[in-house]
Design goal:
A seven-stranded mixed sheet has the order 1-2-3-4-5-7-6. The protein is built from six helices and seven strands, in the order E-H-H-H-H-E-E-E-H-E-H-E-E. Helix 2 packs across helix 3. It has one domain: Gcn5-related N-acetyltransferase (GNAT) (Aminopeptidase, 3-Layer(aba) Sandwich). The chain starts with a strand and ends with a strand. Strand 4, helix 5 and strand 5 form a beta-alpha-beta unit. With 172 residues, it is α+β, with helices and mostly antiparallel strands.
């Protein structure tokens, strides 16, 4: 199993190229992450750069698992900034490089983020994913509860609209 580390603001900045490579791989492989094909490294790096202020101020926690050619997987935890919602957070951008899939890395990344959320006093996690995917199966198998499906919620990389499943998980 690969070592999963939380990226500091400096580590995050230094990892932008590798994070962008991972995002491009995921989109190229058809993952519905909010981007349309063709999706290039420059656009992916630009998107990750927009996350830098949130990583620096701690409102976005990002973990990465290193592989032989860079980052093999990542997951982020977005904290809710509103005072009445500080008990909840959202799991975002769980990605595993296609060459590293099927080895438990996605499950390990998800567990890492869940444990960090619990340590931070978060009692409710939320996420969304394309319905009918392997990712949906991962969330169901790790104790997440689907609370709804929105038809045609997001476009997959080729532009076709897909249903999206919304999940929650109580911690503690």
């Amino acid at each position: 199993m690969r070592t999963i580390t939380r990226l500091s603001a400096d580590d995050f900045r230094d990892s932008l190229k590798s994070l962008a490579d991972l995002l491009v791989d995921a989109v190229d492989d058809g993952s519905s992450l909010g981007f349309l094909a063709p999706f290039h490294q420059e656009a992916a790096a630009a998107w990750w750069r927009t996350r830098q202020p949130a990583v620096a101020d701690g409102s976005l926690m990002v973990w990465a698992a290193q592989g032989p050619d860079g980052i093999a997987g990542t997951v982020s935890l977005a904290l809710e900034p509103k005072p009445a919602g500080r008990h909840r957070a959202e799991i975002v951008k769980l990605m595993v490089h296609r060459d590293a899939r099927g080895q438990g890395l996605g499950r390990a990344l998800l567990t890492t983020a869940e444990q960090a959320a619990a340590r931070a006093g978060i009692t409710l996690l939320l996420l969304d994913t394309e319905s009918g995917t392997t990712a949906e199966g991962l969330y169901r198998s790790t104790g997440w509860t689907r609370y709804g499906i929105v038809p045609d919620y997001a476009a997959e990389p080729a532009g076709s609209l897909r249903d999206c499943s919304f999940f929650y998980k109580r911690l503690g």
